[in-house]
Amino acid sequence: MDELLSMLNFMGMKEPEDLFSDVPGSVRKRSIGIGSGLDEHQVVERALELGRKNSIGMLNFLGNGIYDRIIPEAVNYILSKPEFLDSYTPYQPEISQGMLQSLFEYQSLISDLMAMDVTNASMYDGYSALGEAARMAYRINGKKKILIPDSTYDSKLSVLKNYVWGLNMEIIRYKIGNDGMIDLDDLSSKIDDETSAVVVENPNGYGILDKNVFAVKDIKKDAALIAYVDPISLGAVKPPGEYGADIAVAEGQQLGIPMNFGGPLLGIMSFKMDHIRRSPGRIIGESVDSNGRRAYVMTLQTREQHIRRAKATSNICSNQALLTLAASAYLSIMGSSGLKKVALLTIKHSRMLKEKLSAAGIKPYFDTESFSDVMFRLNREVMEGLASRGILGGLKLTSLIKDTSLRDATFFTVTEKTDAEKIEKLAKALEVI
Amino acid sequence: MEFRQAYYDEPLIKDIRSDSTFKISEDVDENLLSQDLKRKDLNLPEVSEVDVVRHYTRLSQMNYTVDVGIYPLGSCTMKYNPKYADRIASYEEFRNVHPFQPESTVQGTLQVMYELQEFLKKISDMDAVTLQPMAGADGEFTGILIIKKYFEDRHEDRTEIIIPDSAHGTNPASATMGGFDVVEIPSNSDGMVDLSALKAAVSKKTAAFMITNPNTLGIFEQHIVEIAKIIHDAGALLYYDGANLNAIFGITSPGIMGFDIVHFNLHKSFATPHGGGGPGAGPVAVKAFLSDFLPVPVVGYDGRRYFLDYGRKKSIGKVSSFYGSFSVLLRAWSYVIKNGDEGLKNATIRAVLNSNYLKKKVEGYYEVPYYPLKKHEFVLSTENTGRRALDIGKYLLDYGIHSPTVYFPLIVKEAMMIEPTETVSKADLDTYADVLISALKVPEEDLKSRPRNTAVSRIDEVKAARDLKVRW
């Protein structure tokens, strides 16, 4: 308090109130009305008290965008370092080389994973990355129609609609066939000279690894190809760069980020080098310092809001820098062999799940290969019943796509963690619900 | 103070060769996947865990953090991030929760979100809150979409958003993303909104006026009530950019001032870590007449249980994948309950005190234009000293203290925008002032050769943009 008074005195003021003489009395606030503060130990106790109202330690068969995967403890450790955690955007590069090199490595690792030329230093989440990709397609070709499959979830579509609303872009749906894959004839018939972009998903909203995605480059005409993919699947599955994608986007939560009730997440966005000046978001470039040492800086900032203002390619400022570090540390610890194993175990488990549930009379919707999310025909509601037995799972497709004609479709999701024993438990529980 | 930052000629992670130590025991057939789905090759690094940890530890030592000193980037509010919040955010009870779990199994999570919504309402004197936007700019975009939907619903064709020339760059960028035309108006000689320019700009095409108060010069817009009247009389809406909220906790609020929509930057005023560039969280609050337009879901409470409420007929839908940056929301919640009414207000008082104190210490040496009393930040110009803001910023780094924001706002030449925040002592402010002043005594060539004590020296930014080496 002495410090406060001496500082006020230095400025010729008597009391703190003098600092606010410019705030008119008519807009002064009396009290916030939250009440008094707590001691630190009380805050922690209160948080734990609320945390314990959540059910934890449940067997998890939920997915459809967020996945319960192995997170090496070293990833959590690296993220907890205050030099990364408690730093700001690297506006002063000379004193921020650690974060800048880490972001450069992220851009490189993800570009390799996607087999794409370039990756930006992150978007908010997968859905907003898709929205930004659609806007970028418009900047590339000036056209206004976006084609997207009818298996895309309502919430993803809603985010996309909001991103392109200001551009008055038109969103057109194309069909997924009875095999769970793109109906190429339907898609082809909907592509015309006004088509700005075709969005493909792999795996798609039904969880299917879709081979027809690879054929879209041959029918898309001049439209941009936007691929929305699962980054874990790329440990084994053909990446967007191998099938002609102009822009590849993904939700990166699976790369070392906890589920956290769905946030914060990591929006991944990669693209062809030709499009870099039309891309949104931060990009880190390599350069040298005045002594010739390798050094990193934010580059192409003339695309960004703090320079270009109303003409910026995007309004994004804060992004998901810390989560890119999670992805980099995760991918580095896993390596190609680890990531491939995680991807293949996921497929192994999805096949196992199909087999076990089929035996219990619950049939998969498609014969086609699934990745994490496996869709079954199941007419009854099982989610609450399973939860009361300590199992999470049984999400209805209707809760993701309200107007779907597949009214009985129900998801159970596997990862590398859901082994035979866990699948057995699920199958047993479903027999009695 | 002597300072030398660590430097390692640290290789890229791909060039560190040690065999992967990661292990999952379960066997899997390498050829499980059919040939037509398989990727050709994948060349991720294969590095042992210890080498990954050492790599990132060495990189971390080449990165400044608020835990080592003042970080006075203007409008960035780099205050100390309390450690209890990190602890709470690490609890498995919160981390290990899936967004599609039945509501009965996530009552604690939903309660945190509900309480935070209520806190934000009380702090801002607004009526309804969405926690969904992922960052400040995303909050702005959400606000812009609400404005768009509101006028669409009223069948009014309003195409313009008015923005002062001192505004954050995200404001015009967000307005444009929503499809609006941006009308920029000049500031007056006090650095405040020029009321006559505002009146001249307002028309039946005006959808909204976006401002922050205090503005980016750190000056409180004293005519805010009149501004609100001009905007509302024209049938338009008033948007509050909450980046500078740390200046007004408990003093005034957007709601009292007459704003219709406000976003909060929880990673600024609410002390959540900025993570080297994110994640943030940008909740949006609105007055009751706009409540039906908020994104869905918001968290509801029926007196017995907490639930995700999708019941908003005119909702703009969704602006991000799920319900917001939960672990950031959780930290902000803990910050609010820790501080309470008095703690929040005291933070504001000290933040404003620190800003004005530092201003007073340096203003005989640097010009500090416009209205003299500042709020949480102030903007000086180095123009009168004959030195460049950039060079002085680099000089500061050599003392182990971070540069202010430079060259912003655009209306001040050779600008340094300084926001000390409340978590800096008088002694640290005195040191900062001393270094700022000593920069003026250093020969200009010397300044141009700064920094020398950081991991690397001045970087060739032109080369970076020309060569575009953006990956290995």
Task: Describe what this molecule looks like in 3D.
The complex is a heterodimer of chains A (433) and B (472). Chain A has 433 residues and is α/β, with parallel strands linked by helices. Chain A has 3 domains: 2-46, no CATH class; 59-70 and 335-432, Alpha-Beta Complex (Aspartate Aminotransferase, domain 1), CATH 3.90.1150; 73-330, Aspartate Aminotransferase, domain 2 (3-Layer(aba) Sandwich), CATH 3.40.640.10. In chain A, 34% of the residues lie in helices and 15% in strands. In chain A, the strands form 4 sheets. A 7-stranded mixed beta sheet of chain A has the order 2-8-7-6-5-3-4, with helices on both faces. A 3-stranded antiparallel beta sheet of chain A has the order 11-14-13, covered by helices on one side. In chain A, strand 9 and strand 10 (294-299) form a beta hairpin. The longest helix of chain A is centred in the C-terminal third of the chain and has 39 residues, at 321-359. Chain A is globular, with a radius of gyration of 25 Å. The model of chain A has no long low-confidence stretch (mean pLDDT 97). Chain B contains 14 helices and 12 strands. The two termini of chain B are 38 Å apart. In chain B, strand 2, helix 6 and strand 3 form a beta-alpha-beta unit. In chain B, helix 4 (107-124) runs parallel beside helix 10. Chain B folds into 2 domains: 84-338, Aspartate Aminotransferase, domain 2, CATH 3.40.640.10; 349-461, Alpha-Beta Complex (Aspartate Aminotransferase, domain 1), CATH 3.90.1150. In chain B, the strands form 3 sheets. Chain B has a 7-stranded mixed beta sheet, sandwiched between helices. In chain B, strands 10-12-11 form a 3-stranded antiparallel beta sheet, with helices on one face.
